[in-house]
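Researcher: Structure for this, please.
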Amino acid sequence: MATARVEQSELVAGVRFQKIGKLYHFDFAGHPELKQGDFVIVDTRRGRQMGQVMGFTKPDEGRMARPILRPATSRDLVLKQHWEAKQDDALEACREAASNLRRMSEVKFVAAQYNYDGSVVTFLFSAEQKIDTSVLQKRLQRKFEARIEMRQIGPRDVAKLLGGFGACGITRCCSTFLTDFSPISIKMAKVQGISLNPSEITGMCGRLRCCLVYEYEQYVEARRQLPRRNKRVGTPYGEGRVLDQLPLRDAVLVEVGEGVRKTVEREDIIPLEEFRKLAEKAHSPCDKHGDGSCECGMPAGQRQADRLPASREPKAEPEKRDKPDEEKPPRRRSRKSRGRSSGDGSQSNRRRGRRRGGRRSNQRSDRQDSSDSG
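Model: Predicted structure, token format:
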């Protein structure tokens, strides 16, 4: 428990005075028993007010937090409900008093707010110009025993108090969760590609819609990573020109030919210099053949012929035409080939030997006949 007390002493309590309002930090060191959701009484610039503890956090550096006076009692809660019931009557009385003044004809009174014990009543009004309410304040002071305060608010605060539904069909953001209004400019609508038609970007309060700021940073970051319009880039469909950015799809619309438009994702976009180098490499000759290590993407059969330059292309062999049989010279066989002849060749040699032997025998018989006759 001691450790918990030390940690709580380093924190401050966040107190809210309205249902949808800002958080103000107060020191609760004098009341360590406070929990989230408890009602407390604090001292503010507008006097003593009742607020609800919404949580605990670390204090801002260099800022001193006012202390919480005390926890609210059941009697304080009953008094708060009592004076809140009289706020509508106080607003009607203020409007009647203002109707008798010429300067207040353009002033619109929106609400009257009592503090928890009815000692202070604040009237909220809106006007296009700054209004002097000193005369009205004096007249109201005669009717009310409480101290009178007049506060001029802007159109966004008026819409927050009145509530209602927005153009999207649900309850206005300012009436549900917005505790503070962020600055909004027309540039936010341009970056998001929203039509600049007043009915498209204007809220019920007559100002730019609060929702324009919700996705503004995401659009800026997405457009920063995408190529700009009219820039030439490389795509899987070829070189093209960027026509428009599509931040929600993280892509661009590219014109790759006359009337040919393609949507290309950011991951598929290739810088133009790199794209041209790849194109040159694709048309350059391949210096590797048949080993499977070539990165040109051509089939193995085309690497040796189609991808070689003209100086290195293999010369085509001339077609061999067969000559007629009569033009062919007799084929001579060497002695070795004769000795290596098969069995059919040996038989032909034997026949030739027999013929030669027969001729020799005939020549001998003729010689003998001639000698006998002599």
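Researcher: Any notable elements?
Model: The domain at 227-280 is CATH 2.30.30.140 (SH3 type barrels.). The chain has a mean pLDDT of 79.
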